[in-house]
Amino acid sequence: MFRAVRFIVDLFTQRHGFLAFVFFLLIGILMRQAPVALKQSIINSALGTVFYPAQLLVSSIDGYKNIVQENEQLKEENARLRQETYHASEGLQELARLHSLVRFDDKWDFPIVTARVVGHNPGRFLTTLVINRGTYHGVKEDMPVFSMNGLVGKITKATYTHSRVQLLVDPNLKLSVLERRTRVVGFLESMDGHWLTAMVPTHAGVKEGDTLITSGLGGIFPKGIPVGLVKAVRKSDLDVVRMMDVAPFQEFSTLEEVFVMEKEPEWIIRELLDEQP
């Protein structure tokens, strides 16, 4: 087909006018004597040859549009699949954490309420959290709060559906602790809302690397919840007391789920301690 078109073009471009005239004259005579079916076939072939470049261009444009549309659809599908993969990964991590919490529940004689962290104080140091469980779920003030890593703090305010948690690093929270190896009881608090400091008797023999747990004294926290690790032991202003720098087991800024122990404060202990002989 292209060769026929090139032949006709060469006849005119090379100025063979007479040959062109004879060529088209013969074509005309043949067309007059040819059957109708042959005429129709020749006309269709000629029109197809003339309009083929335009058809090719239109087809190419349509093909390009289809490719662009398919590319956009593939991008959207890829983004959706990546989002679903991300959510699936987060769901598996959360499931693993909650499964650990369920196993941890067997260690205590008190019911446990699992909760999700939904907010925290905007101050310079993280001292309080907000969880999505309240009195409707059995949460009350002064109930212990902890995670798989260790002690988190206690409930200081409970509304119907949410509660506020006072963290271990809050300077207003005082805690009685027990060193696991020597079994000596000490007193732990935060001086600046960031670091933990504990005081123990000098003769106790506590050293760097020892582990602190809740002592069970005071009536709020049960005995045995991991608190932190002794990082350094130093002298204090009193010869009979040693100061310890303590690193908590729980990193509070990364908390996502916690659980609340439904343990009522043992106020009888406080009343007995306050009684005068």
Fold and architecture overview:
- There is one protein chain.
- The protein is built from four helices and twelve strands, in the order αααββββββββββββα.
- It has helices at 2-13, 17-33, 36-105, 267-274; strands at residues 112-120, 128-131, 144-146, 151-158, 163-167, 175-179, 185-190, 196-201, 211-214, 226-235, 241-248, 257-261.
- The termini are far apart.
What topology emerges from the helices and strands here?
Blueprint: H1 2-13, H2 17-33, H3 36-105, E1 112-120, E2 128-131, E3 144-146, E4 151-158, E5 163-167, E6 175-179, E7 185-190, E8 196-201, E9 211-214, E10 226-235, E11 241-248, E12 257-261, H4 267-274
Antiparallel strand pairs: 1-2, 1-12, 2-5, 3-4, 3-12, 4-5, 6-7, 6-9, 7-8, 8-11, 9-10, 10-11
Mean pLDDT: 77
How many β-strand stretches? 12
Point out poorly predicted stretches: none
What is the CA-based Rg, rounded? Answer: 42 Å
Structural key phrases:
six-stranded antiparallel β-barrel, 12 strands, alpha+beta, 39% helix, 277 residues
A few lines on this structure:
With 277 residues, the chain is an alpha+beta fold.
